[in-house]
Automatic annotation (TrEMBL):
Gene3D superfamilies: q2cbj1_9rhob like domain (2.60.120.620)
SUPFAM superfamilies: Clavaminate synthase-like
Organism of provenance: Cariama cristata
Cofactor annotation: Fe cation
Keywords: Dioxygenase, Iron, Metal-binding, Oxidoreductase
Protein name (Swiss-Prot/TrEMBL): Phytanoyl-CoA dioxygenase domain-containing protein 1
Pfam families in the record: PhyH (PF05721)
Family affiliation: Belongs to the PhyH family. PHYHD1 subfamily.
GO molecular function annotations of the record: dioxygenase activity; metal ion binding
General function of this protein: 2-oxoglutarate(2OG)-dependent dioxygenase that catalyzes the conversion of 2-oxoglutarate to succinate and CO(2) in an iron-dependent manner. However, does not couple 2OG turnover to the hydroxylation of acyl-coenzyme A derivatives, implying that it is not directly involved in phytanoyl coenzyme-A metabolism. Does not show detectable activity towards fatty acid CoA thioesters.
InterPro entries reported for this sequence: Phytyl_CoA_dOase-like
């Protein structure tokens, strides 16, 4: 692993992100890709994706099914699909391994390969270098960014979805399992945009409302010219401050852009918002990053 210098850590605090090339080996990346292939091979399409759309009421139940599936995914390994890959009966229109958008949100807890990567000694050492005292892992995701259909991710701040008091306690670890290029949808950032708080929050909706979550506040219109692209090679790690503004474009290329990402919270003197969609459960309290 590349030794992380004090200068790099200062750069992280200044920019709100840090690129560490060659953090993981090609073998480690391949072990994650091979494991995800096994998981996808055994995947069942969730029932709420299989209902045929017909009446308004059934559509609402469908939406509720989707929202429950999402809301209760914090302590499970669940599947989320790209648009237009399933017919109305929930059958795949394209090969299923090309249809998945992401798998979340507890790979780090329940899958041995992803657990080992998340708690690897080099990640723990990086946490200590960053001064994290009681970091806990709050969620993880495998993101496919499928060729041709991998959708864009509009500009956002992770703390919109993972809110803490005080702010500044969320840190994303984003691992490129394949080269991420401008063509296949690498991440783009606004350097220094992590210093002025957040403008929007996603919160759990009141029970009985038609959606499971709602947004409070709004995302400002960002100037495209402020974003810089961060292409990164397979095995590279991007550290992402919880309030830095970032996005990725549609993948219009022929190649996928697989990534494994997880979020850590500094739990010392921090409260996790009860309104966040993701909540620790008795089955899975947020595990300590340090083992």
């Amino acid at each position: 692993m590349a030794f992380v210098t004090q200068h790099q850590i200062q750069k992280f605090h200044k920019d709100g992100f840090l690129v560490l090339e060659c953090f993981f080996t090609a073998e480690e990346c391949d072990s994650m890709r091979n494991q995800i292939q096994r998981i996808v091979a055994e995947m069942e399409v969730p029932p709420h994706c299989r209902t045929e759309f017909s009446t308004k009421e059934e559509e609402q139940l469908q939406a509720q099914g989707s929202s429950d599936y999402f809301l209760t995914s914090g302590d499970k390994i669940r599947f989320f699909f790209e648009k237009g890959v399933l017919d109305e009966r929930g059958n795949f229109l394209i090969p299923k391994e090309k249809s998945v958008s992401k798998i979340g949100h507890a790979l780090h807890a329940y899958d041995p390969v992803f657990k080992q990567i998340t708690h690897s000694s080099k990640v723990q050492e990086l946490g200590r270098k960053l001064g994290l005292e009681r970091p806990v892992v709050v969620q993880s995701m495998y993101i496919f960014k499928q060729p041709g259909i991998g959708g864009e991710v509009t500009p956002h701040q992770d703390a919109t979805f993972l809110h803490t008091e005080p702010l500044g306690r969320i840190l994303g670890f984003w691992i490129a399992l394949e080269d991420a290029t401008r063509e296949n949808g690498c991440l783009w950032f606004i350097p220094g945009s992590h210093t002025s708080g957040i403008t929007r929050r996603m919160v759990r909706a009141a029970s009985g409302s038609s959606t499971c979550v709602e947004f409070v506040g709004s995302e400002p219109a960002y100037d495209d010219s402020q974003f810089i692209p961060l292409p990164i090679s397979k095995g590279g790690l991007i550290l992402i401050h919880g309030e830095v503004v970032h996005k990725s474009e549609l993948n219009s290329s022929e190649s996928s852009r697989h990534a494994f990402t997880f979020h850590v919270m500094e739990a010392k003197d921090t409260s996790w918002s009860k309104e966040n969609w993701l909540q620790p459960t008795p089955e899975l309290p947020f595990p300590s990053l340090y083992t």
